[in-house]
Structures are given as structure tokens and as C-alpha cells.
Specification:
One of its GO terms (molecular function) is isomerase activity. It holds the Pfam family MDMPI_N. InterPro entries: DinB/YfiT-like, Maleyloyr_isom, MDMPI_C-term_domain, MDMPI_metal-binding, SCP2_sterol-bd_dom_sf. Helix content is 47%, strand content 13%. By secondary structure, the protein is α+β, with helices and mostly antiparallel strands. It folds into 2 domains: 156 residues, Four Helix Bundle (Hemerythrin (Met), subunit A) (Up-down Bundle), CATH 1.20.120; 103 residues, 2-Layer Sandwich (Nonspecific Lipid-transfer Protein, Chain A). Helix 1 packs across helix 6 and helix 2 crosses helix 3.
Length: 274
Amino acid sequence: MSLHPSLQSSADAWTHSVEAISELVTPLTEGEWNRATPCPGWSVRDIVSHVIGVDCEMLGDPRPIHSLPRDLYHVQTEAQRYQEVQVDVRRHHTAPEMVSELEYTIIRRSRHLRNESRDPETIVRGPRGIEETLEFALRRRAFDIWVHEQDLRTALGKPGNLDSPGAHITRDMVLAVLPKIVAKDAGAPANSAVVFDVHGPVEFLRTVRVDAQGKGTIDGSPSLGPAATLSMDWETFVRLACGRVTPDAASDRLKTEGDPALVTAILTAMTITP
């Protein structure tokens, strides 16, 4: 048995990003592991710890028994507390220890994926203890690790891979939730349309349409007279969607038209990561 074809693209994207992460961090000096990243509250070491921890959980390893300090002010929700355990337990690990554990985890996880024979619809326990299909768990993992690869590239001043396999999975993951963001979270009026025009390494134009019942759908056709149009480059789109930058901080890279209140509501609701 081998990996189901519908899982292959996620496995390939994970492999591409995790190997890029390994190449980025292996030569770092001890001090460079402490560099801040765009991920709130996390250093380079913390992101690598998170990568290791999540993949270990997906391998079925038990979670560490660890009590979090009380002064982690970036930890505000239960989801964040859950994620922070794998991070905080490694905060005093040395650079060689981090590289060694990352390399070992990549070897184990790669072997596990090569031997994965379950049906894509199999229900598994994904990150944060959420039950989901194997297909969605692997797709979300590819999304997560590509975003963290970009966090590390930003922190280390080594841009790249903005159009890699993980970037395209990230695009699809974000586009899938745009109808909810526009119609429900931002409260776009019934019978309206909102256009997203994104350029750069990954380009697309999508229209979210809100029907008479307030339900949102998305397609690739342009809209005549949309309620709002949001234009930006691909990196800004990703950073907004992942909470790496605020709308105000990204204002010089945004071009918007239409209802200002609706635009603000959409940009405010756009963050989809915990």
C-alpha cells in the first residue's frame, strides 16, 4: 500500500517546507535561535519547537507533561495554551539539540507518510486534539508548516518559496473560508459582492457573493459594481490572513475601493489562524 493520490500534494508540500526549515536553521548560531519572528510571542527556536511538537503528535507520541509559566502574555486562549506546551518545554534546548530533534522528527515523519495507507476520509486526531479527516489534517499541516517557514524567512532575512507547493495549499485554505469571513464575520449585505485581487508570486482574482439569505459563495468571475474591492500582493494577503500584520500596518500595501466600513470589517475578520 502507498499514500493515496489525494494526500500526495499535501505530503509533498510538507516535505518541501520542512526541508527548507531544516536548511534555514541548521547553520544558525545560538543567538540567532532567539530572534523574534512575525508569529506573536515566538522566536526562531519557538517556531521550530512547534514544528517538532506538532509532527510528533501526528506520529502518535504522547504530549509532554509540562506546566506553563504564568507570564506568557501572548497566550490568551485554550488553543494557544495547547500549542504552547510543546514550545515552552523546549525553550532551554541548545541549538545542536534543536537541530538534532528536528532532523530525527523529519526522518520519522517522512517514513510515516511513505507508509500511510489509510483512506483519506479516515477520522484522525489532528493538532489541538481536534478530530478531522486524514486528508484535511495533512492539508492543514502543509498550510501550517509553510506559514512557519515564511515566519522563519522573515526573521532571518532570507525570503523565498512564496510560490512553493505549500503556498498553493495555503491559498486554497484561505480562499475556502473567505465566504464565511465576508458574509458572516464581516456582515456584508445580502445580494452584494466583494472582490479580492491578489498579485505577485501567487496570483488570483476571486469574488465572494452574498445571496439573499446572507450565505456566501466564491468564484473566479469578476463582479460589476462590487460592494468592495481589496487589492494587495500575495505576501500581504498571507500575512493578514495569518495574523502576522495588522490592517493598519499593511495599509501602504493595500488598495481598496467601495464601502469603507465593509472593507474595515473584512480586514479585521480576515485572520484565520489561532
